[in-house]
Amino acid sequence: MADCCNTKEQGSEVSDSEICPSCKSKGRKVKIITLKSMLIPTILDTLNASLTHYFCSTKDCKVVYYDTSKKTYITSEVKVSVYQKDNSSTVPVCYCFGWTKEKIKQYVEDGLASNPVEHIRDNINENRCGCEVNNPQGSCCLRNVTSYTKSLSLL
Ligand SMILES: [Zn+2]
From ligand 1's centre to the CA of 109, what distance in Å? Predict the structure, then answer.
């Protein structure tokens, strides 16, 4: 009878632990291996590996990871530049196979390099990708590469 009023709590409600403590956006769950690979040594010292960790992809938010106890890890505590949070042209979009913004731009502008999406897809098919440990977001870069390539083509 009261079911209609409970839909929020049962379905799409974002639980508080999923929210970035800094920018209040919903983050994506990442595996602990990603933090072990990405955090600088002095910060890895403080990792609570038993908690669930999230990745914040908000551009203007300095927080890269946070856990369910609200502990945060910021960009300077991560070994690599984070694509979503870095404006420089040398930041990787594909971390595994070295496609920086600059290199993708070169492909789009003069077609000299091989097609980044095809090149990455070939390597994925050969099971060579290691996004969990190479990419700070801990998951496949292909969507970022595709949308970045598209954004350049539309300029
Ligand atoms: Zn954030």
Answer: 33
Instruction: Detail the DSSP E strand segments found in the chain.
Output: 28-30, 53-55, 63-67, 72-74, 92-94, 99-100
Cα 20 to middle of ligand 1, angstroms: 5
Whole-number Å distance, alpha carbon 23 to ligand 1 midpoint, is 4
**Of 2.60.15.10, 3.40.50.1110, 2.20.25.270, 3.90.550.10, which CATH number belongs to 16-77?**
2.20.25.270
Average pLDDT over residues 77-96: 97
Q: What is the largest CA-CA distance in the chain?
A: 64
What are 26-53's pLDDT values in tens digits? 999 999 999 999 999 999 999 999 999 9
Task: Outline where 3-141 has alpha helix (H).
Answer: 7-10, 32-38, 41-44, 101-110, 116-125, 131-134
Scan for tokens 């095809």, then name that residue: 118
**pLDDT band (50, 70, 90) for residue 12:** low
- pLDDT confidence of residue 31: 97
C-alpha span between 53 and 40 (Å, rounded): 16
Cα gap 130→32, rounded to integer Å: 14
